[in-house]
TrEMBL record:
Protein name, UniProt field: Oligo-1,6-glucosidase
SUPFAM superfamilies per record: (Trans)glycosidases (SSF51445), Glycosyl hydrolase domain (SSF51011)
Chain segments annotated as transmembrane: none
InterPro entries associated with the record: GH, GH13_cat_dom, Glyco_hydro_b, Malt_amylase-like_C, O16G_dom_2
Species of provenance: Crocosphaera chwakensis CCY0110
Family, as annotated: Belongs to the glycosyl hydrolase 13 family.
Length: 583
């Protein structure tokens, strides 16, 4: 249903026939100048926690196949799979021993081929994780590299002599362990560099042979027919050749966004061990390779830096850089307000003038969206359920692509240690090293609750999942929300499918309007549609004057309530209003 502002009949007729309906047809005919990934909704699947079909307590590739109809029902354009490659699983697959083999825990290569075929049959693209910053210390490349200092792979990793007193070469700190990022190796009698775990030695991206071999690994998956890569830790590839010390972060220095303030790594500026300017050139061959495979996308993770919006913008600026990049802008643990969202949107417009932004609101490395944006709002009041429905609507209206992490569509809360996950069940090495100072990442990795009343919430028929399933997640299970038209899951579905039918959201620009708290107002616009988006990001009711917008058609089929008195729009707590404006 739509509400029309009272005006002449001719405008109504022309708007519907010549504008709105024609827009949907024209959008489908104009894809030649528009890439699918520019506006994609990418659903991240953490394979270990999605669906177990072998009763071993770990999710697998067949589990994804079994739930492909659910994924399709969401209305997403693509899935991004966390690593399923051969690995000792010390970091849940981000420590790889063979980049071309499927780890038996998750299945085999034929399972992946079948998954790819079925996903494509649903019209869903498939991205795999390109973990090319480091390998496992059990990888054959590293095993050979550590043998001596003159073997063919001696320079494939970052090795350095100790200082005269035997201490590490410099002051670089590990992002996970909070201690020196250098590990002594008794075999080679040198230190090797790692940014995450000692079992994840850094590949030497200054070595062209390393880059060439990584491209061959990527080519293998592209030849199978995947639709692109999510590039893990892409801003970590290049280190300072001279191994200079990182400067100490001053008391008034810029604090890195998206980093736990209790992590010891923040004591230093991130200047020499990663986020190097040379990295922007190092990524060129990846983009060039993917260009040979049609519309294969490169999506880079650019986080753990002082200004992730600005830096991620650099990663997509220019034809030889990445297609998309995401940052830490919305991975914050603070109240969400209209002012904050407006500031972020303005900054993104500045640093992504030609697009390439991918919004990230949660993933396997950060706390659950609902638990980061919870507690109290900017006014000191608890967020009601309506807030999370409003956030779903807001996120699908932002320009660019969006990553949606499994379970966030259900509104899952963070699993807490020790209440939901006993200390002896902590799996994350980051959490094992720093808990309780830093809780780690297990809280966002617990298995998907498929069924409220089934054993293990329908995730596994085995005795025990690899991580416990919190009792509080049962009331948010998929089957329970499927049955409730007003559930958050169904709001996400409704909004994602509606988004596909709005040309301005698919390929339009954004025009931010100057409004005060608590209103966030912008117009998404393209040649065929102008869509007014009004969000009350407050616990309190508010009003908005629509008279400045002329003729409009209000959207009423999305389940969001509002009142109109003439041109005065009245929105309740966390209320939303959409309207098509006259072109």
């Amino acid at each position: 249903m739509i509400i029309q502002k009272n005006t002449d009949t001719k405008w109504w007729k022309n708007f519907i026939i010549d504008g709105y309906v024609q827009t949907l047809e024209e959008t489908n005919n104009q894809q030649s100048d528009h890439h699918w990934w520019q506006h994609a909704i990418i659903y991240q699947i953490y394979v270990s926690s999605f669906k177990d079909t072998t009763s071993n307590g770990m999710g697998d590739l067949d589990g994804i196949i079994a739930k492909m109809d659910y994924i399709a029902s969401l209305g997403v354009d693509a899935i991004w799979l966390s690593p399923f490659f051969e690995s000792p699983l010390e970091d849940m697959g981000y420590d790889i021993t063979d980049m071309r083999e499927v780890d038996p825990t998750f299945g085999e290569i034929e399972d992946f081929k079948r998954l790819l075929e079925i996903a494509h049959g649903f019209g869903i693209k498939v991205l795999v994780d390109g973990v090319w910053n480091h390998t496992s210390d059990q990888h054959p490349w590293f095993v050979e590299s550590r043998k001596n200092r003159d073997n063919p792979k001696a320079d494939w990793y970052v090795w350095a002599d100790a200082k005269e007193d035997g201490s590490p070469p410099n002051n670089w700190l590990s992002a996970f362990m909070g201690e020196s990022a250098w590990q002594w190796d008794d075999v080679r009698q040198q230190y090797y560099f790692y940014n995450f775990l000692p079992s994840q030695p850094e590949l030497n991206w200054h070595n062209r042979d390393v880059v060439a071999e990584l491209l061959r690994q990527a080519e293998f998956w592209l030849d199978l027919g995947i639709d692109g890569f999510r590039l893990d830790a892409v801003n970590f590839y290049i280190h300072d050749k001279h191994l200079r010390d990182n400067p100490i972060r001053p008391d008034n220095g810029i604090f890195p966004d998206g980093v736990d303030p209790n992590n010891p790594m923040v004591d230093h500026m991130f200047q020499y061990n990663f986020c190097r300017p040379e990295n922007l050139e190092a990524i060129n061959p990846i983009r060039e390779l993917c260009e040979h495979y049609g519309d294969a996308v490169t999506l880079g993770e650019v986080t753990l830096c002082e200004d992730s919006i600005a830096l991620s913008g650099e990663y997509v600026t220019g034809e030889n850089r990445l297609n998309l990049a995401y940052n830490s802008a919305l991975l914050v643990d603070e109240p969400i307000s209209a002012t904050l969202m407006r500031q972020i949107l303005q900054k993104v417009q500045t640093h992504f003038p030609d697009g390439g932004q991918c919004w990230m609101v949660g993933n396997h490395d950060y706390g659950r969206l609902r638990s980061r944006w919870t507690g109290v709002n900017a006014e000191g009041q608890p967020y009601p359920d309506e807030f999370y429905h409003a956030i779903a609507a807001l996120l699908i209206c932002l320009p660019g692509a969006l990553c949606l992490y499994q379970g966030d569509e259900l509104g899952l809360e963070e699993a807490k240690i020790p209440k939901d996950i006993p200390e002896d069940k902590i799996q994350d090495p980051f959490g094992q090293a720093l808990y309780p100072t830093v809780p780690g990442r297990d809280g966002s990795r617990t298995p998907m609750p498929w069924s409220e009343n089934a054993p293990n919430a329908g995730f596994s028929d085995g005795d025990e999942p690899w991580l416990p399933i919190p009792q509080k997640h049962l009331r948010q299970a998929v089957d329970r929300q499927n049955a409730d038209p007003k559930s958050l899951l169904n709001t996400w579905r409704r909004m994602l499918h509606w988004r596909k039918r709005q040309p301005a959201l698919v390929k339009g620009d954004v025009k931010l309007l100057d409004t005060e708290e608590p209103l966030l107002v912008f117009i998404r616009q393209c040649k065929f549609q102008q869509l007014l988006c009004v969000f009350n990001l407050s616990h309190n009711p508010t009003t908005y004057d629509l008279s400045m917008h002329g003729n409009y058609l209000a959207e009423t089929d999305l389940g969001f309530e509002f009142d109109l008195e003439g041109d005065t729009l009245k929105l309740q707590s966390y209320g939303i209003f959409f309207a098509n404006l006259s072109l």
